[in-house]
Design a protein that fits this description.
It is a single chain. The protein is mostly helical. The chain has a domain at 1-174: Leucine-rich Repeat Variant (Alpha Horseshoe), CATH 1.25.10. The chain contains 22 helices and 2 strands. It has a two-stranded antiparallel sheet. Residues 59-73 and 352-452 have low confidence and may be disordered. This is Calcium binding protein. It comes from Thecamonas trahens ATCC 50062.
Length: 452
């Protein structure tokens, strides 16, 4: 086939696709090592030529990232390629036999796949390749199962993330058994595989909020049972990234219903309190940003309130000395003081003197000897105008935590105004979220100034 690359004649997409099919048949049905070797070499050349034809303006080095292409290439060539790979099931055959291809050929398959899932039709109202993938989801399953092979795991991860740009694919993955395969992959001992799987997982949870919200409403329990494993797994990178994602996910305004359910669980609170004591300072810090949501919730369930009350003194001491070297992080310092003030209010309030029915004893948070003495009450620092503005820009209005002396008066005023004495977040949509919190870490979604 030297004429293909060294001669005058250049083949089009249809001819190149035919050569792919021919060589794939050799790779999958021939026992001759010589014939297989020749077919692999030809597949590499054919895929490279197809890529040049479909993506002439693309950079030479294909970074395997979802959507990471610099050029749109020849629209007619891409459309022709999309038609032929769907008609002849060539795409599925390529993906099923990805391990049989050479390294460079695999990269070309990834690049072509990323471009194909972006191919539009009917004036941009349809994505034919995506529709075909969802109609024949065994191809998507092949991609996910490919994650289990370290030789092609990163290739499969890049293709899945490209497909997840489309909501129908996200809905498929959320409802498929492969979702729980993703949890297993994130606990993989291979750093590269676990990290890549987590990139896919984060994209899945943060790209299509409507699909994720509907999924959580129906499948909250099995999902967070699996998520809990990530928080305590032996893979350090997975534990840290899972905590960071959990904090960001719960604080996202589109996940309010899930957040309320999560912070209503005393079991979840205990898990996060244990992670506050992790030997890794980074994990402690990420755990803090989840713990603060439990504490700032003005409508704590009895079991959660009881854990905080029982451990109040130790928590106050612990937080007072918690990562004090971050003194230059003004937001973190203010958040700590805010939480300490709330916990002191819980401690001084006698309304939760008896354990709630059915609750189990809380695991106390241990502190170092240096912090064993009772700490003096720490009042939250006055919030500067810039800090208040940051809080509003992040998620809405933040009311100051109530003191024990003013709780009764604030309660009466809250009932008339429709806001909680412990603070609420009001969004520009008019939705009032029953959660008092501090300046929210990692959330920068400006909203209109709330009205009282």
């Amino acid at each position: 086939m030297a004429f293909l690359f060294g001669g005058k004649k250049k083949l089009g997409i249809i001819e190149l696709a035919g050569l792919m099919k021919t060589n794939l048949e050799v790779l999958t049905s021939t026992s001759s090592s010589k014939a297989v070797g020749k077919a692999r070499t030809e597949m590499t050349r054919v895929l490279a030529e197809t890529r040049k034809l479909a993506l002439p303006d693309e950079a030479a080095d294909p970074v395997a990232e979802a959507g990471g292409l610099s050029g749109e290439g020849s629209e007619s060539a891409v459309a022709a390629l999309a038609a032929v790979v769907l008609e002849d099931e060539l795409l599925g055959n390529l993906l099923e036999n990805l391990t049989l291809l050479e390294f460079e050929a695999r990269k070309d398959v990834v690049v072509l796949f990323e471009r194909l899932v972006r191919e539009q039709a009917d004036g941009g109202t349809r994505f034919p390749v995506v529709e075909a993938l969802c109609a024949h989801d065994e191809v998507l399953s092949v991609i996910m199962l490919g994650y289990g092979n370290t030789d092609i795991a990163l290739n499969c991860g890049a293709m899945m993330r490209a497909a997840l740009a489309h909501e129908p694919v996200a809905r498929w993955l959320l409802l498929s058994d492969e979702l729980f395969l993703l949890f297993d992959l994130m606990e993989d001992t291979s750093f590269d595989v676990a990290t890549d799987a987590f990139l896919t997982f984060r994209l899945l949870l943060t790209t299509h909020s409507a699909a994720v919200g509907e999924f959580m409403e129906q499948h909250y329990v099995p999902f967070f049972e699996s998520y809990a494993r990530l928080l305590v797994c032996e893979n350090y990178a997975t534990r840290r990234q899972s905590l960071s994602l959990l904090g960001d996910f719960l604080l996202d305004r589109s996940n309010i219903a899930t957040m309320k359910r999560y912070i209503a669980s005393s079991h979840n609170l205990k898990t996060i309190m244990q992670l506050l004591r992790d030997k890794s300072r980074n994990i402690q810090f990420e755990a803090f940003h989840v713990f603060k949501i439990f504490v700032a919730n003005p409508t704590k369930p009895p079991a959660v309130l009881h854990i905080l009350k029982r451990n109040a003194n130790k928590l106050v001491n612990f937080l007072a000395d918690f990562q004090k070297d971050r003194r230059d992080d003004t937001q973190f310092v203010e958040e700590k003081a805010y939480l300490i003030n709330i916990i002191q209010s819980i401690r001084d309030n006698d309304s939760d003197s008896d354990p709630p029915a059915g609750s189990s004893p809380a695991a106390p948070v241990s502190t170092s000897p240096a912090t064993s003495a009772a700490a003096a009450p720490v009042q939250p620092p006055p919030r500067s105008s810039s800090s208040a503005a940051s809080a509003t820009a992040a998620h809405g209005r933040l009311a100051s935590p109530p003191s024990s002396s003013s709780s009764s008066s604030s309660s009466s005023s809250s009932s008339s105004s429709g806001t909680s004495s412990a603070g609420v977040l009001e969004y520009d949509t008019g939705t009032v979220v029953n959660l008092a919190t501090v300046v929210l870490k990692g959330v920068h979604q400006p909203v209109n100034n709330p009205t009282s």
